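Late entry, nicotinamide-adenine-dinucleotide complex.
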Amino acid sequence: MKFSIIKERKNPPDRRVVFPPAMCKEVEQKYPDASIEVESSDIRFFKDEQYAQEGFMPITDVTDCEVMLGVKEVPVDALIPNKKYFFFSHTIKKAPYNRKLLQAVLAKNIELYDHETITKPSGSRLIGFGRYAGIVGAYNGFIAYGKKYNLWNMPKAEHLSNLSEMKQELDKLELPAIKICLTGNGKVAHGAKEILDHLKIKEVTIEQYLNDSFSEAVYCKIDVLDYNKRKDGQVLDKYDFYNNAGEYESNFMRFAKVTNYFIAGHFYDNSAPFLFTREDCKSEDFNIKVVADVSCDIDGPVACTIRPSTIADPIYGYDPETESEIDFMDERAIVVMAVDNLPCELPKDASEGFGEMFLEHVIPAFYNGDKDGVLERAKMTTSDGKLTERYAYLQDYVDGKE
Ligand SMILES: NC(=O)c1ccc[n+]([C@@H]2O[C@H](COP(=O)([O-])OP(=O)(O)OC[C@H]3O[C@@H](n4cnc5c(N)ncnc54)[C@H](O)[C@@H]3O)[C@@H](O)[C@H]2O)c1
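Prediction complete; structure with ligand written out below:
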């Protein structure tokens, strides 16, 4: 099987890659029937020379490869017909701006495997960049906190060469006795937790967090049943929440009352209650001043996130009174960091982490007859231009009817 590491062509340029040079070698060593061709790229974090040094001389024509491995959406005119492609297509939730992409995939008889569709039978995802989103998001939140309170000046994550340099920067901080709340229990939340734990911030129980005062910075990590409660008072499990989110109301304000810095790392389903509303932000009980919204659902569950921000300009202020944007240094401002492509700020580590997951969970499926059904579950389109059964719900989207 011939795999190609394709060049990223989306704008703004994304420097990540599925397999860094050393990992290409590892794949070929573990799977002697696998061979990898690298498409030349001048924007990748890992330079063409680095691939060449590992024995992978980059080339410009990869049409003889069968499986194309990329990160971001491939522009329609760059899609090579009759191949298998792996990339984030952002089509499974029917994003209107990618309808043409899915139409082209079908027209070109491409088998599409979206990285988001690579899951366990339970549906939980096997691969992703979430860990690095959490890591960079928590770091960026500390940058924002330092700016807002004139406490420190940290370099942007994108200017650091790797996670270890990021940790060195964090080691310089002298944290005040603040309370930090972190939501979620997936890859993002665990990535953010790595940063809090690296800073040796004490993790406390919900009871302690809500009721006690501390002389040092503390954090509390909460999940859906901590920040939501059933309207009828019953206490059931998180699966009840996942299936019946409409039966719940937010119970987040008790955290907002005591929190200085909030890191949003949860997954939000549209039928769930907002964590806090614009009205909640106006309340005297709302004390959050800095929000690192990694979840980044716009104008939704974290009401002060009124737009995504960018790596170039990551922080803005939200004025609860006017419900609009203001200078983040304004006294009234809740500081919001809502960059929606955080892992791009740490392309080396993010690529290495992603490559490890891809090697562990996806590559074996090509050589073991897909015994765990990973490829079968992930396959969205067939080589004769049809949606697979699992993704047949996208037909109306493809047809332009919704
Ligand atoms: N800002 C960025 O750059 C960036 C990057 C990656 C991910 N994200 C976002 O961060 C969020 C979390 O991503 P992740 O990688 O941690 O996801 P994940 O798949 O690793 O974890 C999701 C968690 O949510 C739980 N969950 C499942 N269904 C749920 C439901 N209906 N309601 C609430 N929770 C549910 C799961 O049990 C799991 O613990 C997502 O919204 C994702 O889009 C943002």
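The mean pLDDT is 97. Will revisit in the morning.
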